[in-house]
Known about the structure:
Blueprint: H1 3-10, H2 14-69, H3 73-80, E1 89-96, E2 101-106, H4 126-138, H5 140-146, E3 149-158, E4 161-171, H6 173-225, H7 239-273, H8 283-300, E5 304-311, H9 314-321, H10 323-340, E6 346-351, E7 354-359, H11 365-377, E8 383-385, E9 388-390, E10 394-401, H12 408-424, E11 430-432, H13 435-457, E12 460-469, E13 475-486, E14 490-492, H14 498-503, H15 507-527, E15 534-539, H16 541-545, H17 549-560, E16 567-572, H18 573-577, H19 580-592, E17 596-602, E18 619-622, H20 624-629, H21 634-649, E19 653-656, H22 662-671, E20 675-676, H23 687-691, H24 705-709
Parallel strand pairs: 10-11, 13-15, 15-16, 16-17, 17-18, 18-19, 19-20
Antiparallel strand pairs: 1-2, 1-4, 3-4, 5-7, 5-10, 6-7, 8-9, 12-13, 12-20, 13-14
One magnesium ion binds near residues 479, 538, 570 and 600.
Amino acid sequence: MSRPGEKFIRNLPLQRKLMLIIMSCCTATLFVSSLFFVAREAQVLYRNQQEYLVSLADMIGRNSASALVFNDPKAAQDTIRPLTDKGNILAAYIVNKDGRLFARYQAAGAVHAALPLEVLPDWASPDEVAQAVRQVAREAYTSSLLSGYASVVKPVELDGEQVGTVVLHANARGFLHSLRYNILVALGFMGVTFLVFCLFSARLQLMISAPLLALLAAMKEISAGKNFELRVARPCDDEIGLLYDGFNEMLHEIEERDQILRQRQAHLQQLAHYDPLTRLPNRTLFYDRLAQALYHAERSREAVAVIFIDLDHFKDINDTLGHRTGDLLLIEVAGRLATVVRSCDTVARLGGDEFTVFCQNVGNAENAALVAQKLVALFGAPFRLGASEIRVTASVGVTIFPHDGKGVDELLMNADIAMYHAKGCGKNVYALFDKKMNENASERVTLLADLRQAVEQGQFELHYQPKVDLMTGKVTSVESLVRWMHPRLGLLAPDKFIRLAEEGGMIAELTDWVMRTACLQARAWQEANLAPVRVAVNLSPFHFQRQDVKQSVCAVLESTGLDPALLEIEITESALMQNDEYTCRVLSELREMGITISVDDFGTGYSSLSYLHRFPINTLKIDRTFILNMMKSSEDQAIVTAIIAMARSLKMQIVAEGVESVEQLETLKDQGCHEIQGFLVSRPVNAERVARFFTDEDHLQPHSAAAEALQGGTARHLLNDRP
Length: 723
Ligand code: C2E
Ligand code: MG
Ligand code: MG
């Protein structure tokens, strides 16, 4: 088959192909069988025709045999004369033994130029006659079909000897007519059968192609709708049925994979856009939603409030109560935040303890402030986390689109600045963004750069504040408190830069400097033969997280040559709680060296009192806020009493921080507190001034209430230049 033909057939629809196959098979079969039938019929007809002619020639031969023997042409002519009655006989010839034409008959008006003997004259030579006879014998069959006459050559025998030959030509019209009739019948049969086959094959191909087309339609429907739950109904039990089963199995497989894929996609989507802990939108989704909200707000000239919420002291909660509790708190906070905003607004968690909210169409700053107020108020009630109940506050910063900024980044930055401002204002409040705050924020950046330089250049100074024994009135230790000599801003207190140093990663260097300076100072006092007084150094929780605390303490002691017994380390309650095991080990090692361990600002963390006995602690320093409120609040008074009682039972030394009044001093003394530290005794002062406390010189203001409050001779140790 030629290539284009092959291509043409290959591209035909299946229906056509099936039709083509069925019809070509049927046509070929019909054609062959009809051909066989016609050929067979032609053979029978021809034989019948020849048999008739042979019998006629036989009869003529018998009748003319004696005429041939006796060479009587007239008698021979008489034997063939009756042929004139037979309308279908065209010609008859009798050839004698010598091969000459002996007698001949020709039907009137039926002269046939093609008859071989006809053209010969009566006197034709035996050779010419024999040749013509042979030609007649040879063409007997083909002449019937092609020339329309039938011929027969029959020898005439007498007593077993050939005495002549009869040649007979007859009209083959009957034979041809019957043949034509048979062909027509065959063709008619073929035509009818072809039509029947056509109808049958159309039905047959429909039985094959219809389910296939139905399958194709189902495939298209499924792939268009991506609905892999659909199934196709098996139409029959043959191979097509198996194909349907296979297709259904494939769909099942795809459906399963599709489900897994969807689940994974949903999970990825969730991970990409939602915070896994609180299930709130994450930073990405919040940015996206806010960008859209701003776009709509700009078109409809509406205001959008962007609010930044940061939990106060979250890190301490995490450090002291553990990350699990911290996580539970975040979940609770997320739940509460969601109750304040409308459904069209978005609450998100940006990370850590930072939450953001945006409220659409807030109208004006007053409304935004109302929302912020509600958010702050959410933290009024304590959070119940498992067995414990804790109080947490939040600082909230609010900024308004389009007044404070146009873009997402700018608005969030401004809300962040406002939130920092709220924190600076004492926490648990909200602040609306003001352009001036930006200046403060950039001040912070400048201060951080300055601090970095200050650490490099050592722009610090140490002040010392004495702790006095309530029984003896003697100074037991001095706390070293760092100050920054800022070239432009003057002397800065630690609350202005310690947090910055922690955040800027400079706290370890700064602590090193403080410890070295304090130890050198203590060594100097020792060498000056002053009474042995410990020097206390504050260790930041950030610094304590480093694994080399012990090494750095040892290095300082070694390089300064200070007796470890004269060094005291103050760590906050929160630092104590983080990394429990490590802290305990390091503190034990430091204490074994003879260093005194104090817990600073005790009472502000969340540790249970009984937890403390696990740690190698010498001293508890009660936070100054309890001391400050002790006289006004019976709750604070009760806390102070409980801390003192517990610490005494644990054989710990107790120091009350921030003692400012004689009343405080007396109450603390009555309750059994060991030492006090505070402005009542002295503000933090430089090394020279603090050293006066160590001597027996009389620096007292003899009639001061504080001096009198202390027992007898102990009062003389109080510095007379106390504020
Ligand atoms: P702290 O360790 O609790 O130090 C005591 C703070 O209370 C000092 O503030 C001190 O001036 C203040 N104070 C003492 N007596 C009274 C009083 O009677 N009334 C009031 N209202 N306050 C009193 P200062 O020096 O501003 O230090 C603040 C905090 O900064 C310290 O609290 C300590 O946590 C931290 N700090 C100071 N120096 C360092 C240091 O070298 N390293 C580290 N990591 N932190 C330091
Ligand atoms: Mg301290
Ligand atoms: Mg303190």
